[in-house]
Specification:
The structure holds two protein chains of two kinds. By secondary structure, chain A is of the alpha+beta class. Chain A contains three helices and five strands. Chain A has a five-stranded antiparallel sheet with strand order 3-2-1-4-5, with no helix packed on it. In chain A, a hairpin with a 6-residue loop joins β1 and β2. The longest helix of chain A has 13 residues. Chain A is elongated, with a radius of gyration of 21 Å. The longest helix of chain B has 17 residues. By secondary structure, chain B is of the alpha/beta class. Chain B is globular, with a radius of gyration of 21 Å. In chain B, α2 runs parallel beside α16, α7 packs parallel to α8 and α8 crosses α13. Chain B has a six-stranded mixed sheet with strand order 4-3-5-6-11-10, with helices on both faces. In chain B, strands 2-1-7-8-9 form a five-stranded parallel sheet, with helices on both faces. The chains are: A alpha+beta, B alpha/beta. The structure holds iron/sulfur cluster. The site of iron/sulfur cluster (SF4) has 16 residues of chain B, from α15. The site of iron/sulfur cluster has 16 residues of chain B, from α15.
Chain lengths: ~90, ~375
């Protein structure tokens, strides 16, 4: 029920009240109310729930998360766990 | 699709699982609050891939499941009245009331319609000025901005034939209720990502502090859930209890201020009964006095409601994470998504339905009926 799906804003109807846009969900397009993300631009991603865009999707954070997952384990293999390292340096077990 | 496929990548999931395995040295019990997360966890078998140390307890975060029986019975009574168009999200149609469900009311001639958005119900009210259009406004904080906008628009447009049957619920008081229950085993929370997209994270540090639990804002795709678990376990192993945001692509600390303003204009906090759990102080929203004219409970005199839960249904214990659905004697026998005894078997986000759809019963073969049931469920969005 609380599922919200990411979609790309492909058109914005400024004259609509409330503010409305056309959102593309991987090929399926649907209207959504943009009143809660008023400064969103065409080409940006939003997350949509029951016909309302609730938040813009931050591409930078998305990529940062994926990069972090890629690096999991690798960092440790190279440098050891940073936390353990810090604990060792501080002299706590 | 963008930002769905990427967060389903099996190779990265394996990395996250390895990391969780390497981090967890002791048993930890985490609760995922949101039914959408329960659905994803059971569907992808995440709980089975986790190391034995990490247990997931399914929380009460399915609005369909916790809508109190007396409100369902009110909905059924209003929907059956002549002249009414009763609009609801699809999930609610099969939720059992005391002696029937909305589907039955529809079959008996009631004008019950499934809508995708509350604005669709508003449009119906505009087009049918001679009918009373009632929208069943259920949901957590995620859905509240949409429902608030619908009633706000109705007032602006001067619509007098539109009203909401409101049964809104809020997550933080539920977290509090879970933590203060004597039977509580929860040591950390995966907070519901989309609730926080709206409300932000400000309500959670006090809870993390008071109950000494990590609270990690978590998304819905498999990698999101694994990352939420990884961060919660890491905190627990370090003896920490902070609020962390593991779903930054959709959650800002401040939430969505415009949406929160609209909620606060239209709704006020109230006590609410949760189906199967009972009364939780401050755990709901109702319309403020300024919008009372749009309150279906005031517009329609629904009295003489007598409610009765089937005795064999243990959904209250399921919702509180005290038992797993398979521990209920009715699970998969007298209770299935076709013939649900409790609301947790109806919505695909209810733990009982999720187990029925994706989980072998007692680890036996998947029931034959499952694929059929899945099509029938018609989840929202
Ligand atoms: S399996 Fe059915 S009867 Fe048992 S707790 Fe779940 S909903 Fe209730």
């Amino acid at each position: 029920m609380c599922l919200a799906v990411p979609g790309k804003v492909v058109a914005i109807d400024d004259s609509a009240d409330p503010l409305t846009g056309l959102i593309d969900f991987g090929g399926v397009q649907k209207q959504a109310c943009l009143e809660y993300v008023p400064d969103v631009r065409v080409g940006e991603y939003v997350i949509v729930h029951v016909g309302f865009a609730l938040q813009r999707l931050d591409e930078e954070s998305a990529l940062a998360s994926l990069k972090l997952f890629e690096e999991l384990g690798l960092l440790e293999e190279e440098f050891g766990d940073a936390w353990e390292q810090a604990a060792k340096e501080a002299g706590t077990p | 699709m963008k930002y769905i496929d990427e967060f389903n990548d099996p190779a990265l999931a394996r990395r996250l699982l390895d990391e969780i395995r390497a981090t967890a040295t002791r048993p930890w019990a985490l609760m995922e609050v949101c039914g959408g997360q329960t659905h994803s966890i059971v569907r992808h078998g995440i709980d089975r891939l986790l190391p034995d140390e990490v247990e997931l307890i399914h929380g009460p975060g399915c609005p369909v499941c916790v809508t109190p029986l007396e409100v369902i019975d009110k909905a059924l009574e209003i929907a059956a009245r002549p002249g009414v168009i009763f609009c609801s999200f699809g999930d609610m149609l099969r939720v059992p009331g005391t002696d029937r469900d909305l589907f039955r009311v529809k079959g008996g001639g009631g004008d019950v319609r499934v809508v995708y958005s509350p604005l669709d119900a508003l449009e119906l009210a505009r087009r049918n000025p001679d009918r009373e259009v009632v929208f069943f406004a259920i949901g957590f904080e995620t859905t509240a901005p949409a429902n608030a906008m619908a009633v706000h628009q109705a007032r602006r447009l001067g619509l007098t034939n539109f009203s909401l049957l409101v049964s809104h619920v809020r997550v933080p008081p539920a977290v509090e209720a879970i933590m203060t229950a004597p039977t509580c085993r929860v040591q950390g929370f995966l907070a519901a990502g989309h609730v926080c997209s709206v409300m932000g994270t400000a309500e959670y540090p006090a809870l993390a502090e008071r109950y000494g639990v990590p609270i990690v804002v978590t998304g819905f795709e498999p990698l999101d859930i694994l990352e939420g678990i990884r961060r919660a376990v890491r905190q627990l192993e370090r003896g920490e209890h902070r609020v962390e945001n593991a779903y930054a692509r959709a959650v800002r600390d401040e939430g969505n201020p415009a949406a929160v303003r609209m909620i606060e204009e239209v709704f006020e906090v109230t006590d609410r009964n949760w189906r199967g759990i009972g009364r939780i102080p401050g755990s709901g929203w109702r319309l403020t006095d300024a919008f009372r004219a749009f309150d279906a409970e005031h517009r329609f005199d629904v009295t003489g409601i007598r409610t009765e839960e089937p005795a064999e249904c243990r959904s209250g214990e399921v919702l509180q994470g005290l038992i797993k659905p398979t521990e209920c004697g009715a699970f998969g026998t007298t209770c299935t998504p076709r013939t649900p005894l409790g609301a947790t078997m109806v919505s695909s986000e209810g733990a009982c339905a999720a187990y029925y759809l994706y989980r072998r019963m007692n680890d036996g073969p998947t029931p034959q009926a499952a694929p059929v049931a899945r099509e029938e469920m018609n989840p929202v969005a």
